[in-house]
Amino acid sequence: MPEVPADVALEEVWIVEATYAPDAAETRPRFRPEHLARIARLMAEGVVLQAGAYLDLTTSLVMIRASSEEEALGVARGDPYIREGIWVELRARPFGRVVRREPEVTASS
């Protein structure tokens, strides 16, 4: 029996954990539209797969398609939340994302 079913694949991506500054609740609203627009653009480009934050404003999680930890952190470092000190620490960890394989299309005779 195969370890992974034929119609399933594992994609290595990166989860970036971004820690909020203690005053993020006060400083975040001014830069949130710019941040969200950037995340939406990166999602449309296929770079960011998922993103969100814990509702207690302790940490954001961003799932990034990148070839290395440094590349994933580079994407996160380009965010306005880093520039403005809203995120104060970044960590990246490799993550095995489960995806469905598209069925192969065969030509009919």
Structural summary, described in words:
The radius of gyration is 17 Å and the shape is elongated. It is α+β, with helices and mostly antiparallel strands and 109 residues long. A hairpin with a 5-residue loop joins strand 2 and strand 3. A four-stranded antiparallel beta sheet has the order 2-3-1-4. It is 31% helix and 36% strand. It has a single domain, classed as Dimeric alpha+beta barrel (Alpha-Beta Plaits, 2-Layer Sandwich), CATH 3.30.70.
Radius of gyration: 17 Å
Topology as a string of helices (H) and strands (E): EHEEHHE
Average pLDDT: 91
Quote the distance from N terminus to C terminus.
32 Å
Dominant shape? elongated
The CATH H-level superfamily is Dimeric alpha+beta barrel
Instruction: Label the structural class.
Output: alpha+beta
Largest sheet: 4 strands, antiparallel
**Uncertain runs:** none
Helix content: 25-40%
> How many DSSP-defined strands?
4
Features:
109 residues; alpha+beta; Alpha-Beta Plaits; four-stranded antiparallel sheet; 3 helices; 36% strand
Explain the layout of strands and helices:
Blueprint: E1 8-20, H1 24-44, E2 48-53, E3 59-64, H2 69-77, H3 80-83, E4 87-100
